[in-house]
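Subject: for your reference before the review

Hello V.,

The reviewers asked for a structural picture of the protein, and I figured it would be easier to keep everything in one thread rather than splitting it across files. Below is the amino acid sequence we used in the manuscript, unchanged from the supplementary table.
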Amino acid sequence: MLTIGQLAAHAGVTVRAVRHYHHVGLLAEPERDASGYRQYGAAAVVDLIRIKTLADAGVPLARIDELLHAGPEQFAAAITEIDRSLAEKMDQLREHRERISELAAGDRLFLPDDVVHLLDRERALGVAEGLVRLERDVWIMLVAQTPQAIPQWVAAKNAALDDPAFVQLYRAISHALDLPPTDPRLPELAEQIKAWHTRNIDRPGPTVDTPVDMMFSHVLQSSPTLRRLLAPSGADFASEW
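And here is what came back from the structure prediction:
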C-alpha cells in the first residue's frame, strides 16, 4: 500500500495533481486508514499513469474519463476527434501569432498602406502627432465601414496636402490642440479655417457615401479646442481630413 506522496512519485506527478484528479473524478479516492491517511494499491498507480499519459498528450481532462473506459474502436474514434480539435486550435494559435507579429507594424495592423503613407506624409509636413493620431482613428472607422471609399478619400486628402495654404492651416490646427479652448488665439485661427473653407467650397471630393457626420462628431468630442475651431465651419471642412 502506498501513501499519496508515494503514489505521486511512482507516476511522476505532484501530490497536488493527484488531489485534483480526485476532485474532478478521474481517480477514485480510497478509504482512509485508522490514522486518517489514504492508502493506494498498484491499480491506482496504473490508473494514474494512464491519466497522466493522456493529459500529457493534450487530451482535455473532460475527455479522459471517457477514454479510460472506452473500447478499442471508441478509443480510436475519440482520439481522432481530439486530434482534429487540437489541429484547429493550433491553426487558431498560428493565426493569433501572425496577428501579434503584425502589431510590430503599428498602424498597418488596422489601415491599408496608402493610408499609412498618407499619415507619414502629414508627419513629414510638420503636422503634430496628436492630430495625426486623431485622424488615424477617423481612418480606422472609415476603413471598417466603407472600405470601398478609401481610394477616393486618400486621393482627396493627398490633393489637399498638395496645397501649401491647407498644409499651413493644418499644421496650425494640429499645434493648437495643446491650447486650452479659452486661448485668445483660437478665434483668429477659426476665422482662417472658415475663410479657407469659403475659398475651397467648390473643390471636388469623394463621391462615395461615407459616415462623415459620425467622423466629424468623433473629432469634436475628442477635443474642446477642436470643437471651438471647427464647429463654426461645419463638417465640410472636416471632410478634408
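For the response letter, the relevant points are probably these. DSSP finds 13 helices and no strands in the chain. Residues 234-241 have pLDDT under 50 and may be disordered.

Happy to draft the paragraph if you're swamped.

O.
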